[in-house]
Design goal:
By secondary structure, the protein is of the alpha+beta class. About 35% of the residues lie in helices and about 15% in strands. It folds into 2 domains: about 350 residues, Zn peptidases (Aminopeptidase, 3-Layer(aba) Sandwich), CATH 3.40.630; about 130 residues, Alpha-Beta Plaits (2-Layer Sandwich), CATH 3.30.70.360. The chain has 13 helices and 15 strands.
């Protein structure tokens, strides 16, 4: 049973004494609100801070410009965690209790949703508190801290894993903001694959026999090759039709799309030469993932053949499914009990009530979910999660932390982020509500510091009590059939020489003669959409 040792007491007090520093850091990353693969300011800020703290930092790790790999200490055990810092397009919001996109950029620019600004700050504070404790008490060990961009497309962790960055670690802690405070026991996240299908119109002149056309030199009236936009539209439509036949309606698998490039900005009678559509799909087992890809690839080939195009595919990511570790989960939850459940203050509650009032219903005395201010035992959360899952399904939803779990014992730590109680069971708050609360320190700090203290206490246990680490590693070896490379171990799904897709047309902020803008120009008014129809 973990105890509040002098090492832990020092770490928890260290975090309390620096609460303002880490709260300000969270707001700094929140205000950058940079989307996947384009988190330039956020990554630079982390690298500069870690270097100032004495870490050795590799910027651009794994060929990803906004990733990093930092290390401090010497000898074993080697313990690691990570930061994420990408925001989500279409979620721009100011920290106010009413809908208000950020000023100065397009209203559908990026904003933090989960928020990853909290995620990274929580892990950072926990790791730095552990480092300070190691220095204070001369504890030997090595701390690894990774910068993981593009989590919203599960982008970087499979790359780091494939290129060997996780090799040699003894344990990892994965953290995420959530609606409650717990550690995941059994049902870890499932797999996420994503690929971009490209259609190019390379030889449109071969589409039609020119001898059949009475007017040979008037291109504005000529029949033309359908081209890349038609190919993309056919791909989209065929996939909607064939989605019914990809896999039975069980296992909570999902498939989503995003149009990255849609032809040329012209109304001339010329075939669009280039289009791209990204598909991302989640499933609890890798076999379903492969089945979905087989259908997608067949659709792309047929769409291209029908429209005079060439089809190509480029992988964005492939993750494994998560591997659990009971020893680490139970140890972490015991440390949660030592830290104590987080609580909201009056400022946060007033903000929540103001939101409810502005949405037109009676403000509640206690506006936040009850689960946010209590500890939920791992088995209770497991029972809650599995209510809607079939018995055969062992994994659920997706997150690329799962690639850490196959290289060392890993615990998935959850601590609360602010979520409001609905006025009734059928009500869902609009997205701006959660996005706004993510920028209010009074609402974010309780879960953030609770999570940071839990991480620090657990890392200190792994450094100071060898039996804890041994139990976790013994379980890891048992579940993998011998550890890394064992009979039940699953290797990274991406090749070691994988070229990260950072050069694709991801949403981003750009610098123009008009000043800094979202990749969609800042409109004169509203979203620039014109008059409602």
């Amino acid at each position: 049973m973990p105890e509040l040792t002098q090492h832990k007491r020092f770490a928890l007090e260290w975090i309390d004494e620096r609460a303002r520093r880490f709260s300000d850091w969270h707001m700094k990353i929140w205000n950058y609100h940079e989307p996947a693969w384009r988190e330039y300011k956020s990554a630079k800020a982390y690298c500069e801070l870690l270097r100032a703290e004495g870490f050795t930092v590799e910027e651009g790790s794994g060929g990803m410009p906004t990733a990093f790999a930092a290390s401090w200490g010497k000898g074993g055990p080697v313990l690691g965690s990570y930061a994420e810092y990408d925001a989500v397009p279409g979620n721009s919001q100011q920290p106010v209790p009413y809908p208000a996109p950020r000023e100065g950029v397009h209203p559908w620019a990026a904003g933090h949703t989960d928020p990853h600004s909290q995620l990274g700050t929580t892990a950072l504070a926990g790791v730095l508190a552990t480092k300070a404790t190691m220095e204070k008490f001369n504890l030997e060990g090595t701390l690894k801290f990774f910068g993981e961009p593009a989590e919203k497309v599960c982008g970087s962790k499979p790359v780091h894993a494939a290129k060997g960055y996780f090799d040699g670690a003894d344990a990892f802690i994965s953290y995420h903001p959530h609606f409650t405070n717990t550690a995941i026991l059994d049902t870890q996240c499932g797999s996420y694959w994503s690929a971009v299908f490209t259609f190019e119109t390379l030889e449109p002149e071969k589409w039609i026999d020119k001898s059949l056309v009475p007017t040979k030199h008037t291109s504005h009236a000529a029949a033309r090759c359908p081209g890349a936009i038609d190919a993309l539209c056919l791909m989209y439509t065929m996939t909607k039709y064939t989605k019914e036949a990809m896999f039975p309606h069980t296992g909570t698998w999902t498939l989503n799309e995003f149009v990255m490039v849609a032809g040329d900005a012209t109304s001339d009678n010329l075939p669009p030469r280039f289009s791209q559509i990204q598909y991302s799909w989640r499933a609890p087992v890798l076999g379903i993932q492969q089945q979905i890809y087989n259908v997608l690839a067949n659709n792309a080939r047929n769409a291209a053949a029908t429209t005079g195009c060439r089809a190509s595919v480029r992988w964005v990511t492939k993750t494994r499914v998560g591997l659990t570790n009971h020893a680490l989960a139970n140890l972490t939850f015991e440390n949660m009990k030592l830290v104590g459940a987080p609580k909201f203050d009056d400022e946060a509650r007033k903000f929540g009530r103001d939101i409810q009032k502005n949405l037109g219903f009676e403000p509640m005395d206690s506006p936040f979910l009850d689960d946010a201010e209590r500890l939920m035992p791992p088995q209770e959360y497991e029972t809650y999660l599995r209510r809607a899952l079939p018995e055969w399904q062992l994994n659920y939803t997706s997150d690329d932390y799962v690639d850490y779990t196959w290289h060392a014992p890993t615990v998935r730590v959850l601590s609360m982020r602010p979520r409001l109680k609905p006025p009734n069971d059928s009500y869902e708050y609009p997205a701006w509500v959660n996005n706004a609360m993510g920028g209010l320190p009074a609402a974010i700090n309780p879960g953030m510091f609770f999570g940071a203290k839990t991480i620090a206490a657990t890392l200190i246990d792994l450094l100071t009590v060898p039996e804890h680490l041994k139990r976790a590693q013994d379980e890891f070896k048992q579940r993998t059939g011998g550890g890394v490379g064992g009979s039940q171990w699953v290797a990274p799904l991406l090749p070691r020489d994988f070229d990260p897709p950072v050069d694709l047309r991801w949403p981003e902020y750009v610098e123009t003669v008009r000043g800094p803008e979202w990749w969609i120009p800042t409109p004169h008014a509203g979203s620039g959409a014109g008059d409602p129809l």
